Amino acid sequence: MPSNVKVFKYKSCQVLVQEELAQDATDSTDIALGWYVWPSAVVLADFIASNPNFIVNMNVIELGSGTALPGLLASMLGATHVLLTDKSKDELDVAARSIQLNKLSQERISTKTLLWGDISPLDFPVDVVLAADCFYDPKDFEAIIATLASICKRNPSCQVIIAYQLRSVHYTIQPYLTRFHLQAQQLCVVDNIYLILLTSTSIA
């Protein structure tokens, strides 16, 4: 499978990211969704590079990490520990190779399979959740929000930063945020990519 290493440079560090394309890829529909650095991941990484206070000394999870640019950068910016998650080991292989490329310590960054809707594998405190372009398929919206809400319920002070590209006005996450008691604050908009901070409304 053809592979490519991209370099993303920031003020204090640079991140090497492994990409892989399908052998017979002829257009974007042939690219495995998790194996390409999508614009939302770049926007989210740029935000945390400019606002490292969200990350430093925090336990961070990246949801649906794919190539894991935001999670890799979070580790370099001083997160206590970063957990990169995706739905299968195969999906995490590219992220694991990027960890090795950047010579990051496994004590500071690791990978774990996590199915949306099931947080039972998460058995440690979470301060921050990162999610870039997870809201791609409307069929997944409810499971993703349920996952985020469960993490926030278990970790009441947790903050969730999502990069959300608005692809259609007919699909929105707002009804699910209301149902699962999450509130949203817009941080910024870059090229139709919305950076949103989610927190629980159930904090006593």
Keywords:
9 strands, 5 helices, Rossmann fold, 26% helix, globular, methyltransferase, 204 residues, seven-stranded mixed β-sheet, alpha/beta, two-stranded antiparallel sheet, methyltransferase activity
- The rounded distance between the terminal residues' Cα atoms is 50 Å
Give me the secondary-structure category.
alpha/beta
Count of individual beta strands: 9
Number of helices: 5
CATH fold label? Rossmann fold
CATH architecture: 3-Layer(aba) Sandwich
Order of helices and strands: EEHEHEHEEHEHEE
Structure characterization notes:
Helix content is 26%, strand content 29%. It has a seven-stranded mixed beta sheet with strand order 5-4-3-6-7-9-8. The model is unreliable at 23-31 (pLDDT under 50). The radius of gyration is 16 Å and the shape is globular. Helix 1 packs parallel to helix 2. The chain has helices spanning 39-50, 69-76, 89-101, 141-154, 174-179, and strands at 3-9, 14-20, 59-63, 81-86, 109-113, 128-132, 159-165, 182-190, 193-200. The longest helix is centred in the C-terminal third of the chain and has 14 residues, at 141-154. The chain has one domain (30-200): Rossmann fold, CATH 3.40.50. The protein has five helices and nine strands, in the order E-E-H-E-H-E-H-E-E-H-E-H-E-E. InterPro entries: Methyltransf_16, SAM-dependent_MTases_sf. GO terms for molecular function: methyltransferase activity. Belongs to the methyltransferase superfamily. METTL23 family.
